[in-house]
Write a structure and sequence with these properties.
By secondary structure, the chain is mostly helical. Helices cover 69% and strands 0% of the residues. The chain is globular, with a radius of gyration of 21 Å. The chain starts with a helix and ends in a 10-residue tail after the last helix.
Length: 245
């Protein structure tokens, strides 16, 4: 189509991730309403196809095992996670606001890869380097008592990185809040898979792929910390407040 050709030409001439993504978003916008209207049926259809797939592309000797494994997978949980994610995107006419969130994040990534002496004081991720190095050091040096202990520690320590994003620069709180701590942004995050219920469903699915003795047990504290890491009001209560919606 003409729109598709324009998108490809725009991608080819793009000089930044933000510019590239804006061409893709412009192309996809007309289809967003249809996706939102059918969001429940989309994920249900994918789940049903996965459950009923006859495995003919799998070698015959493994086919029965494959079919049995597909039936035992916790696909209903992934279906619910997908529905929740789209519900956050589709509700209350938030599409444009969330498109801008994506573009602002990509612009920050663009700015992170250019001269550090540029004019953008807050719109970059360079300040996260110390937090990332510290995360790697923490998980490498941690003296775990078990595999589950190490995994729980890893998830909790990973949450320090978004904490540094939200809380690491006092002079940037207002700008970050204006860009990301919006009604639509907070609503989307609360429904996304990082939240406790959705994260629990994902872990149930993952454990369904593992043998019983290999399954992972996460603590309530891990779910809580990991589930709140993208909510600024949970990370820095004295710096952020919930948006007025």
């Amino acid at each position: 189509s003409d729109n598709g050709a324009e998108m490809l030409m725009g991608i080819r001439s793009s000089k930044s991730l933000r510019e590239l993504a804006s061409h893709v978003i412009t192309f996809l916008k007309p289809y967003a309403a249809d996706v939102c209207t059918c969001k429940d049926d989309i994920f249900k259809g994918v789940r049903k196809c996965a459950e009923r797939y006859d495995g003919m592309l799998v070698e015959e000797e493994y086919r029965d095992e494959f079919r049995s494994a597909m039936k035992d997978m916790y696909l209903e949980g992934l279906e619910k996670v997908g529905k929740l994610g789209l519900a956050g995107f589709c509700s209350n006419e938030c599409n444009d606001d969330l498109y801008n969130v994506v573009l602002d994040l990509l612009e920050m990534l663009d700015n992170s890869m250019v001269n550090a002496n540029g004019t953008e004081e807050c719109a970059h991720f360079r300040h996260l380097s110390d937090a990332i190095y510290q995360f790697v050091d923490d998980i490498v040096s941690y003296q775990a008592t078990s595999r589950d202990d190490w995994i729980n520690n890893m998830f909790v320590k990973f949450a320090d990185i978004p904490n540094a994003f939200w809380c690491g620069r006092q002079q940037c709180v207002e700008e970050l809040s204006e860009s990301f701590n919006t009604c639509c942004g907070v609503q989307m995050i609360k429904k996304l898979p990082n939240r406790k219920a959705s994260f629990s469903r994902i872990m149930t699915f993952v454990n369904g792929l593992l043998d019983e003795e290999e399954q992972i047990t996460l603590t309530k504290d891990t779910y809580k910390v990991f589930g709140n890491m993208f909510l600024p009001v949970k990370q820095c209560k004295k710096k952020y407040s919930n948006p007025t919606c």
